Amino acid sequence: MVLGLVNGAFYALLSLGLAVIFGMLNVVNFSHGALFMMGAFVAWMLLNWLGIGYWWALLLSPLIVGTFGVLLERLMISRLYKLGHLYGMLLTFGLGLIIEGVFRNEFGSSGLPYSPPPEFRALTVDFGFMILPGYRAWVVLASLIVCLATWVVIEKTRLGSYLRAATERAELVQAFGINVPRMITLTYGGGVALAAFAGVLAAPIYSVNPNMGSNFIITVFAVVVIGGMGSILGSVVTGFALGMIEGFARVVYPEASATVVFVIMAVVLLTRPAGLFGRA
Amino acid sequence: MLDATTAPPLLKIDALEAWYGESHVLHGVGIEVRQGEVVTLLGRNGAGKTTTLRSIMGLVGRRTGSIAYEGREMIGLRSDLIARAGIGYCPEERGIFASLDVTENLMLPPVVRAGGLDLPTIYALFPNLKERARSPGTKLSGGEQQMLAIARILRTGARLLLLDEPTEGLAPVIVQQIGAMIREIKQRGFTVLLVEQNFRFAQTVADRHYVMEHGRVVDMVPNSDMASNVERLHEYLGV
Ligand SMILES: Nc1ncnc2c1ncn2[C@@H]1O[C@H](COP(=O)(O)OP(=O)(O)O)[C@@H](O)[C@H]1O
Ligand SMILES: [Mg+2]
């Protein structure tokens, strides 16, 4: 259960980034897992090469990887919009493989240690019905805060209304004087930064290794499908819920824990093809 | 002071050609709109009126010729820069966003210049928009959506408004309200290029009328000559 909640925190952050990107670009960002992994590696490099610790990494790594995402979008992905979504997806898939390949070459695939910040070492949080090690409680809290902040930005701000409107009809939003191509670039950068943020959060829990993204991302795609493509609220709620369901399955019937998410996905696709929170 | 007839036109379109993919839709359109005028584009369905407005806004894939606004060439510009030059666009399908409430729809177009109407003035002109401020934009009635689509470009400081068939599909009483509103914004110094199929309505608001057929401008009738040209207009519009 506890592990489930922590996994849910990662599912929520990752599927939120995917949903934001999908809403604006209409591209399923298949390099999301690789960029999540890159977030963790950047935190590791900051620590081991520059002596910059966890808290700064939590800020810097999303900025660095987000900037990398901005470059990817500007230099490559944006060239494919005219050709249709399929090309964009293939490109991001290829980019993901390349990024993972580069890190595997440089760092091997055995995994590098990254210890949790000392503040959490002795800390546990007692909820009454369960006890969470301090760092894991922080991961859940940080994920909730960032998801909530993203939701507020999208639903309650002027910038968010531009994003929502452009998701509906980008052409008209641009004809009102808004630079939509730049907004698309920044959205991609923002979604990627969310993945990198999750990567830094994950670094102390899972060892930092080139495959950490692909382990997660398959489930995350299922979360996105269940929640409804492009739905912000859907991806957050579904992310946490599925993490918990998975964790619960691990306790009561461990053999099913790996497949339960996909069973749910199949059922949702058959009964509500647009996803639980999707607009058909 | 410049005489209205000799002053350079606010909008001057010359030899405009436009394409959707392979199909060539506009064949050398020429139009002039002077500061403070309300000018209509009349013509049957498919004549190219909407395409002319979309070409001005830079929303048509390929276009050639000249579109000068305040003497500045716009033909190669991206549509957000055209809007920022001071042109407001109200599309035929109104373009109200379902995921935005009425206020968000109203506030969506950024202010591009000083001199737009402020919110109290807009709410005075369109009281319904204030009452329905928190409703999703697409929950409004057709008439209210049209009002919203026009109101949101009055805020931005745009001086030239492109209105594409604002009366289409609306009840006569709403059409009258829209007519009154267009006269009111003309009073306030806005310039309007209005697409219409209903020339009786056009007659009540406009100074001049261009008639389009098959992607060309085939006639120009000053409003004062409308009465004596009714026969000809019937023929053009097929009514
Ligand atoms: N998106 C489009 N793709 C291809 N042809 C189009 C498109 N939109 C309009 N057309 C064609 O362009 C011509 C002019 O259309 P339009 O400008 O919408 O006319 P109007 O507004 O005067 O009714 C019509 O023949 C129409 O079929
Ligand atoms: Mg039309």
Automatic annotation (TrEMBL), chain A:
It is a multi-pass membrane protein. It comes from the Bacteria. GO terms for biological process: amino acid transport. GO terms for cellular component: plasma membrane. The keyword Transport applies. Keywords: Amino-acid transport, Cell membrane, Membrane, Transmembrane, Transmembrane helix, Transport. The keyword Cell membrane applies. The chain crosses the membrane at residues 6-25, 53-72, 84-103, 135-154, 186-206, 218-245, 252-271. InterPro entries: ABC_transp_permease, BCAA_transport_permease. Its main location: membrane. GO terms for molecular function: transmembrane transporter activity. It is found in: Cell membrane. Belongs to the binding-protein-dependent transport system permease family. LivHM subfamily. This is Amino acid/amide ABC transporter membrane protein 1 (HAAT family).
UniProtKB/TrEMBL annotation, chain B:
GO terms for biological process: L-amino acid transport. Residues 11-239 form the ABC transporter domain. PROSITE patterns: ABC_TRANSPORTER_1, ABC_TRANSPORTER_2. The keyword Cytoplasm does not apply. GO terms for molecular function: ATP binding; ATP hydrolysis activity; branched-chain amino acid transmembrane transporter activity. Coiled coil: none annotated. This is Amino acid/amide ABC transporter ATP-binding protein 2 (HAAT family). Pfam families: ABC_tran. Belongs to the ABC transporter superfamily. The keyword Transport applies. SMART domains: AAA. CDD domains: ABC_TM1139_LivF_branched. It comes from the Bacteria.
